[in-house]
Amino acid sequence: MKNLLYLIIGLLALTIVSCSKDKDDASADADILGVWQGTQWEVAGSGTIVDEGTEMDFELLMLAPYLDKEPYEVTFSPDNTTTSTRDNFTVRTNLKMLGQEFTDEMKIGFSLDGATWRKEGKILYIENDDEPGVVYPYEIKELTSTTLRLELTEIPPAVLENMEGEVINFTGHVKLGMKRK
């Protein structure tokens, strides 16, 4: 069962950035350029795993509770690339499956170093250099001079492809929050 937990975490960890809840500037057209520090990282949703012909429904909640102790910074540059200061952080995972609940904390790999980005209206598209062709369409929930909040509800199909014999169907969201440095 723990292997399934790691498989789910591994797939969903591919879909994420960093988050925040500041609200001191109402400028809707604030510039995304610059250095941002992660304040919130959340993945939540439900799905189905098919393993050896058996369907198993699951509910998942993943949080990064130590971003204050494991600071994560992302720089959005004018040439539409990013750099970041960390390649991993600790995630607390709660998984409900087969009538059981599993909770674990582990380091997950995550980096936006070398990604490309483009902003179109209220959508921030991010493509990681280690996943060419996979573009993550984050909705910009808030962008002010001090706060950036993003939400991803459209998980790209390439992330949910069959992996190690497991078929995963996931519906949920990724929420990221950042504050300007």
Task: Name a few traits of the molecule.
1 helix; eleven-stranded antiparallel beta sheet; single chain; 181 residues; mainly beta
Structure description:
With 181 residues, this protein is mainly beta. It has one domain. It contains 1 helix and 11 strands. Strands 1, 2, 3, 4, 5, 6, 7, 8, 9, 10 and 11 form an 11-stranded antiparallel beta sheet that branches. Residues 14-28 have low confidence and may be disordered.
Question: In short, what is this structure?
Answer:
The chain has 181 residues and is mostly beta strands. The chain has one helix spanning 2-13, and strands spanning 34-51, 54-63, 73-76, 82-84, 88-97, 100-109, 116-120, 123-127, 135-143, 147-152, 167-180.
> Strand share of the residues?
over 45%
DSSP summary: helix tally? 1
**Could you list the spans in which at least 5 consecutive residues all have pLDDT below 50?**
14-28
Please, what is the average pLDDT?
Answer: 81
CA-to-CA gap between the ends? Answer: 41 Å
Radius of gyration: 16 Å
Question: What is the string of SSEs from the N terminus onward?
Answer: HEEEEEEEEEEE
- Give the total of beta strands: 11
The general outline is globular
Largest sheet: 11 strands, antiparallel
Helices and strands: which structural class? mainly beta
Kindly state the percentage of residues in helix. Answer: under 10%
How many distinct domains? 1
